[in-house]
Design brief:
Shape: elongated
Largest sheet: 4 strands, mixed
Distance between the termini: 139 Å
Structural class: alpha+beta
Order of helices and strands: HEEHEEHEHEHHHHHEEEHH
Helix content: 40-55%
Number of strands: 9
Number of helices: 11
Strand content: 5-15%
Number of domains: 2
Length: 337
């Protein structure tokens, strides 16, 4: 009888304890939900501020590999790609590139606002950690260097540092060519490396062979013309061929370049402006046309239109224009004297 009474007394107390425990657990669960919601709200606010609008951050990273590849040049008469000083750089040479500065001394900005905001968030950095305007000792960009090896360096644009290094190299546009296409269209004598995307690499053998066949046909038409061969070699290597060169040497060099890069060879030798470029080069060697740096002048007048620079391509286009045929005829007449 005593045991039953004890049970009756304890049962209500047990029920109250269970209820209290459930209430506490429910309160803790509600608190966790509130904290998670607050975190989500704060993250959303930051995304809106960083993106500059009411949208989400834009992912600038992409699945792409870019090879920093040496721009091939004939320097010191070295044409053998395996030579330790090929293209004017010794084997094992390491070059470093930094964020360039404006004339007022400020750093150029490698990133757009959208890129900066996304990378700061992705890398877990404070807002404006990647700003170029921070103090020198706190500035991410001040001592940032991109190391490039002569043998090539690969950048993974799906990673923050790979993408940042890529953007820094693009800022050095006098030394780094942004793509193979740009190297073909507007080569600069100052280019040291070219950025080659894996998307630019041609893997279709049939296309390459077809291009090579076209190259051989065009080469056959000019192989006995030293002036054209020199222009082709200079157009590909972006290096002037100085003085009189033996025809066999020019032929061998041209064939080597053809085999190495048929597509580039074809783009140069099939250039409709090539004959006019040859005329300009011959006129320069004969002191008929004056070359000042990379610019061409005839009778102290730049061979270009308004708001243009008389580079070899611009000057060739200028004298090829029927409106300027009197200038072309005058240059050709003086060359025949």
């Amino acid at each position: 009888m005593g045991e039953e009474t004890l049970d009756l007394i304890l049962e209500p107390e047990q029920d109250n304890t269970d209820a209290m425990m459930q209430q506490l657990l429910s309160q803790e669960s509600e608190q966790q939900k509130l904290e998670e919601e607050e975190k989500l709200i704060e993250k959303t606010k930051r995304e809106k501020v960083n993106s500059g609008d009411d949208g989400e951050l834009i992912n600038c990273l992409r699945k792409e590999l870019v090879t920093v590849q040496l721009v091939e040049k004939i320097v010191g008469g070295i044409t053998d790609k395996n030579h330790p000083f090929y293209s004017g750089k010794a084997s094992g040479t390491i070059s470093s590139y930094v964020v360039p500065r404006l004339r007022n001394g400020e750093l150029k900005n490698p990133l757009t606002k959208a890129e900066k905001d996304f990378l700061e968030d992705y890398m877990g950095l404070e807002p404006n950690a990647l700003s170029i305007h921070k103090k020198r000792e706190e500035n991410f960009w001040t001592n940032r260097q991109v190391i490039v090896q002569k043998e090539g360096t690969v950048l993974d644009l799906s990673t923050p540092m790979g993408y940042i290094n890529y953007k820094i190299l693009l800022m050095n546009n006098d030394l780094i060519c942004p793509s193979l296409e740009d190297l073909r269209k507007m080569p600069k004598a100052t280019y040291e490396y070219v950025l080659v995307s894996d998307k630019e690499v041609y893997n279709v053998t049939s296309e390459k062979n077809n291009t090579k066949s076209l190259c051989w046909k065009l080469y056959g038409k000019v192989e006995e013309k030293p002036s054209i061969l020199k222009a082709v070699i200079e157009g590909i290597t972006n290096t002037p061929v100085q003085g009189e060169m033996d025809l066999i040497f020019l032929q061998n060099t041209a064939v080597e370049l053809l085999e190495k890069n048929p597509r580039l060879f074809y783009s140069v030798i099939s250039d409709p402006l090539l004959p006019f470029k040859v005329t300009l080069k011959e006129a320069t060697e004969s002191d008929v046309v004056e070359k000042r740096g990379d610019y061409y002048y005839y009778n102290n007048t730049p061979l270009c239109g308004k708001n243009e620079n008389p580079t070899i391509t611009v000057a060739a286009k200028y004298i090829s224009n029927p409106r300027n045929q009197e200038i072309l005829f005058s240059i050709q007449a003086r060359l025949k004297r």
